[in-house]
């Protein structure tokens, strides 16, 4: 495992744009960073608390989950200056405000998918007000894919099968949604984990379909963190050991050659590190 970069920010949600460049967010300062070698360059100040980031694979447009503003946002261009600006994209469902969008990704058909629930530390197994939403009709409408969830956090899609994976942090499990005709999905508890505070993020290998699940924990329980590798059939294939249990984001490179892992050094510091693990 190789250390790529270190930053005095609470980094989250690594994401690749269509050109293969890596970006990440800081939910405390509201900054969107571009990872350039061993350095991080501030790309945009969102004036919010972005905790999720994804790029449209066809247009390159960037979308953010902002739990602080309770909305999904899009990065657009100022019509006068051409500078990047943040605009509100989705902030309610059926007339009600969103709870706190956490992570997002794109379905193979180009629709947007995102989790909406409480952040880590606020969610609990008995608080089942979380949801997963997806856009339809070229993102003009919003549908609830699932409701009644406890702290849904990470979300990822297997581009080959269309399977959707969602981490339900307080219940320490991963849900799977299998697409069926006419836009319907069949859901189930796909994998239950043991130990840790729960899984906080998930990503899928673009070629093999292997699922990588980040387990978050406290240092008093374990000095190391772990990313569980699970095959499409739900069977564990291995565990990647991480230097700290405070994992805050995962992303597989577009080529499938590397897994990028963001961790926070400890509970008290604001130092984050980005690691690269060859696959």
> Would you tell me the overall average pLDDT?
91
- What's the number of helices? 0
Strand order of the largest sheet: 1-26-25-24
Instruction: Just give the CATH class.
Output: Mainly Beta
What series of H and E elements makes up the topology?
A: EEEEEEEEEEEEEEEEEEEEEEEEEE
CATH architecture descriptor text: 6 Propeller
How far from one another are the termini?
10 Å
Number of strands: 26
Q: How would the global form be characterised?
A: globular
Largest sheet: 4 strands, antiparallel
Helix residue percentage = under 10%
Annotated CATH topology? Neuraminidase
Pfam family, one: SGL
Organism: Bodo saltans (Flagellated protozoan)
Keywords: Hydrolase
InterPro entries: 6-blade_b-propeller_TolB-like (IPR011042), SGL (IPR013658), SMP-30/CGR1_Lactonase (IPR051262)
Structure write-up:
- The protein has a single domain, classed as TolB, C-terminal domain (Neuraminidase, 6 Propeller).
- The protein has 279 residues and is mainly beta.
- The strands form seven sheets. A four-stranded antiparallel β-sheet has the order 1-26-25-24, with no helix packed on it. It has a four-stranded antiparallel β-sheet with strand order 2-3-4-5, with no helix packed on it. It has a four-stranded antiparallel β-sheet with strand order 6-7-8-9, with no helix packed on it.
- The chain has no helices and 26 strands.
- The termini are close together.
Summarize the entry for a quick read.
Residues 108-261 form the SMP-30/Gluconolactonase/LRE-like region domain. This is SMP-30/Gluconolactonase/LRE-like region domain-containing protein. The chain contains no helices and 26 strands.
């Amino acid at each position: 495992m190789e250390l790529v970069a270190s930053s005095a920010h609470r980094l989250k949600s690594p994401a690749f744009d269509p050109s293969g460049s890596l970006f990440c967010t800081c939910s405390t300062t509201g900054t969107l960073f571009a990872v350039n070698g061993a350095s991080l360059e501030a790309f945009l100040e969102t004036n919010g608390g972005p905790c999720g980031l994804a790029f449209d694979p066809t247009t390159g447009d960037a979308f953010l989950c902002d739990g602080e503003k309770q909305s999904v946002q899009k990065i657009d261009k100022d019509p006068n200056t051409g500078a990047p600006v943040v605009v509100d994209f989705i902030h309610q469902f059926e007339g009600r405000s969103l709870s706190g969008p956490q992570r997002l990704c794109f379905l193979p058909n180009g629709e947007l998918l995102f989790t909406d629930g409480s952040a880590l530390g606020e969610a609990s197994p008995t608080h089942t007000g979380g949801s997963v939403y997806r856009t339809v009709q070229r993102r003009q409408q919003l549908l609830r894919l699932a409701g009644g969830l406890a702290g849904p956090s990470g979300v990822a899609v297997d581009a080959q099968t269309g399977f959707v994976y969602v981490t339900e942090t307080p219940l320490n499990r991963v849900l799977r949604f299998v697409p069926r005709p006419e836009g319907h999905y069949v859901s189930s508890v796909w994998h239950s984990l043991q130990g840790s505070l729960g899984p906080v993020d998930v990503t899928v290998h673009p070629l093999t379909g292997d699922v990588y699940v980040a387990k978050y924990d406290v240092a008093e329980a374990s000095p190391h963190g772990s990313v569980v590798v699970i095959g499409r059939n739900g069977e564990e294939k291995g565990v990647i050991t991480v230097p700290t249990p405070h994992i805050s984001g995962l992303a597989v490179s577009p080529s499938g050659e590397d897994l990028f892992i963001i961790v926070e050094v400890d509970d008290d510091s604001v130092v984050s590190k980005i690691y690269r693990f060859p696959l």
